[in-house]
Design brief:
The structure is a homodimer of 359-residue chains.
Chain A lengths: L14 H4 L2 H11 L8 E2 L2 H7 L2 E6 L10 H13 L5 E4 L3 H13 L3 E5 L5 H9 L3 E4 L4 H15 L2 E2 L6 H20 L6 E5 L4 H10 L5 E7 L4 H8 L22 H10 L2 E5 L1 H13 L7 H14 L5 E6 L6 H8 L27
Helix pairs in contact in A: 2-8, 2-9, 4-5, 4-8, 5-6, 8-9, 9-11, 12-13
Chain lengths: 359, 359
Amino acid sequence: MPSDQGNGATRAGTSAVRLSHRDVDRARRALAGRVHRTPVVHSGQLTARYGVRLWMKAENLQRGGSFKLRGALLAVDRLVAAGSRGVLAQSTGNHAIAVALAAREHRIPAMLVLPSDASPVKVRRIREAGAEVVFAGKALAERAAAVLELRDRYGYEVVDPYEDPVVVAGQGTATAELIEQVSAEGGRLDAVVVPVGGGSAIAGACLAAHPHDVAVVGAEPEAVPALTAAMHAGKPVSVGGFYTIADGLRPDRIGDLPFELAHREVAAVVTVDERAIADAMRATLLHARLVVEPAAATALAGAVRYAEGRRIEVGVLLTGGNVEPDLLASLLAESRPTSTAGPSAGYIPWTDSLGGPQG
Amino acid sequence: MPSDQGNGATRAGTSAVRLSHRDVDRARRALAGRVHRTPVVHSGQLTARYGVRLWMKAENLQRGGSFKLRGALLAVDRLVAAGSRGVLAQSTGNHAIAVALAAREHRIPAMLVLPSDASPVKVRRIREAGAEVVFAGKALAERAAAVLELRDRYGYEVVDPYEDPVVVAGQGTATAELIEQVSAEGGRLDAVVVPVGGGSAIAGACLAAHPHDVAVVGAEPEAVPALTAAMHAGKPVSVGGFYTIADGLRPDRIGDLPFELAHREVAAVVTVDERAIADAMRATLLHARLVVEPAAATALAGAVRYAEGRRIEVGVLLTGGNVEPDLLASLLAESRPTSTAGPSAGYIPWTDSLGGPQG
């Protein structure tokens, strides 16, 4: 673990340059036996459908239903070792579930700040883990303000989902495993594609991929292109709060630390529209037989877009699987609108075929 | 491979006694690199929900969407080596997909006899693999008669899904891997639960489990209790063609060879009703984040029933994931009836909670 991580609100500019793939290695050792080594799944049907060789890291099968437990466990470990008697975090949902589970392991209270349009499944899972949920607006800035207020009121320590080097190193373990697992199976990754919300996944992927000849590619919804905008501006900027089906990717600004790591390392950032996200989610369900949430499907859609016209092997970080039953149903039932899937449900496309030959 | 397998229509009574776990070992070597070593998946949420430690072998992620490719590859290998120029099989669907894929690998034609109420997804996948589908009634006897007629007409060799020792040994490799994978992760299986249709899965499981101290348990729908009836009668009997949501378990009579192997080895046979099958399928979808077909869910429901009141660790063979989108949708949308899910769709229950704490 880096030695300068402070209280989870560490500023980038100092810590990012000190982070390296060795921090990911250390994180892997600290997490051994505490998180699942999730499988890397192939799908001949998806390969045939999309014309690209895909290696999908199924973090939807991770404890807590997403890769976020990796970073949260390490961060909460450290805070408890330093004497914390309670933890606090803002999140669109999966980081909050992860912090709640980590806090439960240490038998300390957790308070999680979520947007008012958070996924109900995620809210329920946080509460099932025994933690408290506080709602604060829809924008990242509103949640951040609520966290500061609650920290002052309760004295809990903050587990930042994007700016904490420990969290970023922990999230990088998922990509490190993916690269290792593909290699062990005789594959040769040209690129790994990860979804971009607040940026912890892509920052971790940059650390993990650094010693390897593997391009890191970010995928984000056209509606909330936070990394694309930051790359153009040369710094993190808010892109506003447009709706995307990918609730986990709604943060409208990439974190400082993730941006500092990503802007030098990423090979490309691709944006995908809502139809492509829904199509990838349905294809993963019906052809790869995995339930993934829209954020994970965004990575698959981005991988397909990135691979167009190239003969490459692509790793895809399927980040999570905490998804509303109603959204799954609306993907399955032809264009049937649902109340919880939001305005984009009307755009959900249908494909005529179950894909090409499988193998 | 056993040396006496003949043409796939081998009678039991001679071949069964010669089959052993060594045939499963040989099958594993012959299949190495040709089938996926599918992951064994844990689900803290399912463990909490059902109160039993479950290790689920995700053969829904297998090539062709089910464990059936294992036996079919070996059987078609052998037939091609003996000079076959085409293959023929009857099946409720998954064995047919597997034979179609195996035939495609060898570039020979395949003709598959399915019931008229076969899953449309399975029919489509057979055709996508380039094979021909022939429909014949709904009962096993009707398909068997059609196979004999087609064999005489076309001179194709038959790949029997239940009576062929090569197929049974191949199917056993799934259970052998499950036992090995759980052991490698420090688990200790008390039992493995497999669904019972024609019987190849449970016969293979009996072979694979024989050297280990692991009980083999069969799970079948109350509506089609072919193994239960055979155990009572002391021989395979037809139980009639009642409807079950588990299309893969609709064979109304267990095979002779599977029965000969199973009746001595199985520790128990549990039957589960349609509600329990649907509930297990929905739970697997929402909590374990895997798409499985009703036959696989029957194994999970059977495992839960078998484990009631015992403190045991149970392996579950999730045999396949070829399922109708409409059926998934009907499981997700409250009691919404669908045309393809059949009469039992009305019985599909809902649970109020997404389960207990996960971990």
